[in-house]
């Protein structure tokens, strides 16, 4: 028999975060079906919505690279938004079954329970983005290599923030599962439409473009388009990176605060 | 090892509506002691454990575990305790072995220690065939065994067990108790547990705490509680109702008897310390010509103590047992 832990170890926030991130990644590695399923929706948009868009909007709107060059980076931001914003439901399930409570009683720092989960969003997003790039390339999508790497990283940063916000929502409504889905769905579509992912916001009325200017995702989408087109050190990319970092910082702050404050 | 002073815990159930789950709870658990917390549903048992494990902040009073205050240093407390809650500690999407190893890492234990401990717990709780299965595919009893293993991974000096054996079959209940007894012998582990199996508390706990409406209403060894609060139940049959009535009068006057009732030709009573009260009583009845034809002397149970203290049977108030009895 091993002896019981006598002298407690000091708190190690980084290893706590790693413990949670590894724990969260395990089920995905064990059964990557989740990754495959989560790719269906963006591929549907790419395959069905893409041609519609092409046929109904003046080609000039999309800029020099054409529709695909405009549309594919947006779709990647869409996976980040749609996929990670539902992640809170996993935490919600663990709150309801008791696994979250078990982790709360371990010496893990409270914050690591959110940060570790949010950081895990990075990995599947990178894989999904690479698949989308590979699928789109035979149809004429020509991504800039350096820009693509940076674009995918930016996507991961955004995913961390959105994931953390989703976990915070799960903690806030932990006793009403319907509220989680109600709020997530209610927010999802305005944010999606007002980011210019699906259709150019410029083609709408002025007020819509004005509202979109307050949506951080608008800047991330613009930056992704710039990056995949080969821009690296430009203002568009800078604003997008700033927006993604702000979303990540806000998400982690709100998430950590929510888990620290809420008794189960 | 555990010290609780005038603990109160208030929850908001609705706007401006509060419930005092704990009103005034005080008790002490010494190092190496096993204490059972008993009480009807909603009495405050789980809330007490949740305050002591840092899950819920107390509204008043003080509590410390292993010399560490639960409010001032909750992380310090969490490093020194293990906990098996009522819910499923293992996440449904995880594999059993992954959860067990993640638990070891959460406590910062070296990998080799975790492997050794997990191997031992796997043997103890028959988890060998379940290790590579996702938790969602396990039956309720199998999940419970995994939950218990998770709580035991850190080998803590203080263990909190919230109804650990509920949902286990008798074989695994016995195995778990063997292990708990072993932990106490080897590591002198301090244990505070809640259970609905009163016989478990009777057999394994050094002390029993009865809690009701957020207060501790009894705190003693099971044997003393039974002696002081209940005494033996005695039932005597006589030749006929007249003899029974005459006998009842003599019984009431005898020392150490109470709650004397007559039903037909049967007299029921309670005797404080049946072994000393009953023999002289029988002799006296024989002498006055109303000798008992049949006598049943029942040892008191903790449930009797419970009934006496709370006016409710633990089993009556407990849906789990109702369902179990209905099924049986």
UniProtKB/TrEMBL annotation, chain A:
<keyword id="KW-0813">Transport</keyword>
<feature type="transmembrane region" description="Helical">
    <location>
        <begin position="122"/>
        <end position="141"/>
    </location>
</feature>
<feature type="transmembrane region" description="Helical">
    <location>
        <begin position="60"/>
        <end position="82"/>
    </location>
</feature>
<keyword id="KW-0812">Transmembrane</keyword>
<dbReference type="InterPro" id="IPR013525">
    <property type="entry name" value="ABC2_TM"/>
</dbReference>
<feature type="transmembrane region" description="Helical">
    <location>
        <begin position="147"/>
        <end position="171"/>
    </location>
</feature>
<keyword id="KW-0046">Antibiotic resistance</keyword>
<dbReference type="InterPro" id="IPR051784">
    <property type="entry name" value="Nod_factor_ABC_transporter"/>
</dbReference>
<feature type="transmembrane region" description="Helical">
    <location>
        <begin position="237"/>
        <end position="256"/>
    </location>
</feature>
<feature type="transmembrane region" description="Helical">
    <location>
        <begin position="33"/>
        <end position="54"/>
    </location>
</feature>
<feature type="domain" description="ABC transmembrane type-2">
    <location>
        <begin position="33"/>
        <end position="262"/>
    </location>
</feature>
<dbReference type="InterPro" id="IPR000412">
    <property type="entry name" value="ABC_2_transport"/>
</dbReference>
<feature type="transmembrane region" description="Helical">
    <location>
        <begin position="178"/>
        <end position="199"/>
    </location>
</feature>
<dbReference type="InterPro" id="IPR047817">
    <property type="entry name" value="ABC2_TM_bact-type"/>
</dbReference>
<keyword id="KW-1003">Cell membrane</keyword>
<protein>
    <recommendedName>
        <fullName>Transport permease protein</fullName>
    </recommendedName>
</protein>
<comment type="similarity">
    <text>Belongs to the ABC-2 integral membrane protein family.</text>
</comment>
<dbReference type="GO" id="GO:0140359">
    <property type="term" value="F:ABC-type transporter activity"/>
</dbReference>
<dbReference type="GO" id="GO:0043190">
    <property type="term" value="C:ATP-binding cassette (ABC) transporter complex"/>
</dbReference>
<keyword id="KW-1133">Transmembrane helix</keyword>
<dbReference type="GO" id="GO:0046677">
    <property type="term" value="P:response to antibiotic"/>
</dbReference>
<dbReference type="Pfam" id="PF01061">
    <property type="entry name" value="ABC2_membrane"/>
</dbReference>
From TrEMBL, chain B:
<dbReference type="GO" id="GO:0005524">
    <property type="term" value="F:ATP binding"/>
</dbReference>
<protein>
    <submittedName>
        <fullName>ABC-2 type transport system ATP-binding protein</fullName>
    </submittedName>
</protein>
<keyword id="KW-0046">Antibiotic resistance</keyword>
<dbReference type="Pfam" id="PF13732">
    <property type="entry name" value="DrrA1-3_C"/>
</dbReference>
<dbReference type="InterPro" id="IPR025302">
    <property type="entry name" value="DrrA1/2-like_C"/>
</dbReference>
<comment type="similarity">
    <text>Belongs to the ABC transporter superfamily.</text>
</comment>
<dbReference type="InterPro" id="IPR003439">
    <property type="entry name" value="ABC_transporter-like_ATP-bd"/>
</dbReference>
<dbReference type="Pfam" id="PF00005">
    <property type="entry name" value="ABC_tran"/>
</dbReference>
<dbReference type="InterPro" id="IPR050763">
    <property type="entry name" value="ABC_transporter_ATP-binding"/>
</dbReference>
<dbReference type="GO" id="GO:0005886">
    <property type="term" value="C:plasma membrane"/>
</dbReference>
<dbReference type="InterPro" id="IPR017871">
    <property type="entry name" value="ABC_transporter-like_CS"/>
</dbReference>
<dbReference type="InterPro" id="IPR003593">
    <property type="entry name" value="AAA+_ATPase"/>
</dbReference>
<feature type="domain" description="ABC transporter">
    <location>
        <begin position="2"/>
        <end position="238"/>
    </location>
</feature>
<dbReference type="InterPro" id="IPR027417">
    <property type="entry name" value="P-loop_NTPase"/>
</dbReference>
<dbReference type="GO" id="GO:0046677">
    <property type="term" value="P:response to antibiotic"/>
</dbReference>
<keyword id="KW-0813">Transport</keyword>
<keyword id="KW-0067">ATP-binding</keyword>
<dbReference type="GO" id="GO:0016887">
    <property type="term" value="F:ATP hydrolysis activity"/>
</dbReference>
<keyword id="KW-0547">Nucleotide-binding</keyword>
